[in-house]
Design goal:
Residues 239-299 form a coiled coil. Residues 116-150, 189-220 are annotated as: Disordered. Keywords: Coiled coil, Membrane, Transmembrane, Transmembrane helix. Helices cover 46% and strands 29% of the residues. It is an alpha+beta fold and 532 residues long. The chain folds into five domains: 2-44; 52-66 and 456-528, conserved putative lor/sdh protein from methanococcus maripaludis s2 fold (Beta Barrel), CATH 2.40.420.20; 68-72 and 374-454, Elongation Factor Tu (Ef-tu), domain 3, CATH 2.40.30; 78-108 and 339-370, Beta Barrel (OB fold (Dihydrolipoamide Acetyltransferase, E2P)); 156-298, Helix Hairpins. The strands form five sheets. Strands 2-11-14-13-12-15 form a six-stranded antiparallel β-barrel. The longest helix has 65 residues, at 157-221.
């Protein structure tokens, strides 16, 4: 109002001067007008509202803090395959660095020797069963004899006594037969040894006389050269002497051959003695005798006959022997089956190492090859000991491997910090890759970006408007046209946003220009940065 009124008055003065005032009065009037305009301009100048400053408003939103690092891709699943058999390697398809599928045949064996051993085990098992069966049959015969003796004992004790006497006589006879068989076996062995000695001596004599005959025949054939000093008569006499010697030796050799044939015939006539049969017969008779004696004792006392046949311990021993034979057969059968089956990949993966050589002999328990999974994989990171507190199991991550991106999650954190190549303490962190594909390569470097902290619907500011001093973090706020320094507390910090946990409320205006000269208490005019 004041400015308007002043202008009007000045205009009236100007009009009057044009009509009535002389020229010397106009100059002071113009000075007054200039001063009036200056006053109006001063009232409407920025000094009245202060310097314009850009401000941002404290808002609510989501803040995510990320951690970025590079690490090595490793397999979480590794298996070393060993040979289950001792057998030659017929075929080896395992090559270092190649990808294989579960069920793929990687090593095949030559099982001929294994099949031969299996046949031997089967025959051994059958032999054990036949031996036990024979023992049971003998036991049953003894049991039958015992049962018969029990029936007879019920009729007459005298009859049992007679049977015992007869059986004792039989045992004695069988004992004599066994002793004779043993003696005969010894005598036959001695006789056979003597005959063999004579035959060997005979052959030596034949050989010696044969050599002598050959020498005589050689001298006869070369008599002129051998006896050059003999005259005609002496040479004729010598020739006759050599002929007589050759004839004599020929006859002696023939006689020795005839003698050898006679000795050979004698040796063949010395037969073996069935000691085993005699021993079995004697053993059975003794068992029957003991059964008769037991029956007699029971008949005399009115008791029951004792149990005959094999004992429980014997039956258990038979069962054990058969089980052992069956286990041996089963073991060889399993080895044959494993050998024929070969070694197959148990899961999809990459061949990491190969020890098997095609054509060589594999040793049972020997290392063949190593398979690592390319489906169960992770990235191993080395995190500074100053940042490990940000690592939480379950943190989500984005993994870049070549041109491919994968989802990841923090799976494991080591419990010890170890020095890296530069000597700085680092902690191992394992980030599992959740969606692997055929583009995964083991041992290469991958880039990992991990969300280590996240807050939703919290107060935040742009990171660049926050200042840090010796007393802590602070910002400049504009309140009532005046700048005020405000200490704040921060939370989660992302690349562009920072959470404000204390010191500010939603809607507060914070000075965005932290590079200018801002002073606490200065008068300013706030201009929102998004509308500036």
């Amino acid at each position: 109002m004041f400015g308007k009124k002043k202008v009007v008055e000045e205009e009236e003065i100007v009009k009057k001067s044009k009509k009535k005032l002389p020229g010397w009065v106009i100059v002071p009037i113009l000075v007054v007008l200039a001063l009036g305009f200056w006053g109006i301009s001063a009232l409407s100048s920025p000094k009245s509202s202060g310097t314009e400053l850009s401000v941002v408003t404290v808002k609510k939103g989501d803040v995510k803090e990320t951690y970025s690092a590079s690490g090595k891709v490793e397999s979480e699943k590794e298996k070393v395959f060993y040979s289950p058999v001792n057998a030659p390697i017929l075929d080896c398809n395992a090559k270092v660095g190649t990808a294989v599928k579960a069920g793929e045949l990687l090593v095949a064996f030559d099982t001929k020797d294994l099949e031969r051993e299996n046949q031997k085990s089967e025959l051994s098992e059958q032999s054990t069963k036949y031996t036990n069966q024979d023992a049971l049959e003998q036991s049953r015969r003894s049991a039958d004899a015992a049962a018969q003796a029990q029936v007879q004992a019920a009729k007459s004790t005298e009859t049992l006594k007679q049977q015992i006497a007869d059986k004792q006589a039989q045992v004695a006879k069988l004992q004599t037969a066994y002793d004779q068989a043993s003696a005969d076996a010894g005598a036959n062995a001695e006789k056979a040894n003597a005959l063999q000695s004579q035959m060997e001596d005979n052959l030596k004599q034949q050989s010696a006389k044969g050599v002598e005959k050959e020498n005589s025949q050689r001298n006869l054939d070369n008599i002129d050269a051998v006896y050059p000093d003999l005259d005609v008569d002496e040479r004729a006499a010598k020739k006759q002497e050599l002929v007589n010697t050759i004839n004599t030796l020929t006859q002696e050799i023939e006689d020795l051959k005839n003698t050898y044939r006679e000795l050979e015939g004698q040796l063949n006539s010395v037969g073996g003695t069935d000691i085993t049969g005699a021993a079995q017969a004697l053993s059975a008779a003794r068992q029957e005798l003991e059964a008769l004696k037991t029956s007699l004792s029971q008949a005399a006392s009115g008791g029951q006959a004792a149990e005959t046949g094999v004992t429980k311990a014997q039956l258990n021993n038979m069962a054990v022997s058969e089980n052992l034979a069956e286990l041996a057969t089963l073991s060889t059968e399993e080895l044959v089956a494993k050998g024929k089956e070969g070694i197959k990949a148990e899961f999809d993966g990459i061949i990491a190492d190969v020890k098997a050589v095609e054509g060589s002999a594999a040793v049972q328990g020997g290392e063949l090859f190593t398979l690592v999974s390319n489906q169960d994989v992770s990235v191993k990171l080395q995190v500074s000991a100053n940042d490990f507190d940000k690592m939480k199991v379950g943190n989500e991550a984005t993994i870049k491997l070549g041109d491919s991106n994968y989802k990841g999650v923090l799976k494991e954190i080591d419990k010890i910090a170890l020095p890296n190549e530069k000597g700085n303490p680092v902690i191992g962190v394992t980030v599992h890759i959740e969606n692997p594909d055929e583009n995964i390569y083991i041992g290469v470097t991958a880039k990992v970006s991990m969300i280590v902290a996240e807050k939703k619907d919290v107060l935040y500011l742009p990171s660049e408007v926050v200042n840090t001093g010796t007393e802590g973090d602070f910002v400049y706020i504009v309140s009532g046209g005046t700048v005020k320094k405000q200490m704040i507390e921060l939370g989660v910090n992302s690349a562009s946003r920072v959470e404000v946990t204390a010191g500010l409320s939603e809607g507060a205006q914070v000075v965005a220009d932290t590079m200018g000269t801002i002073k606490d208490g200065m008068k300013v005019s706030a201009v929102k940065e998004d509308t500036k």
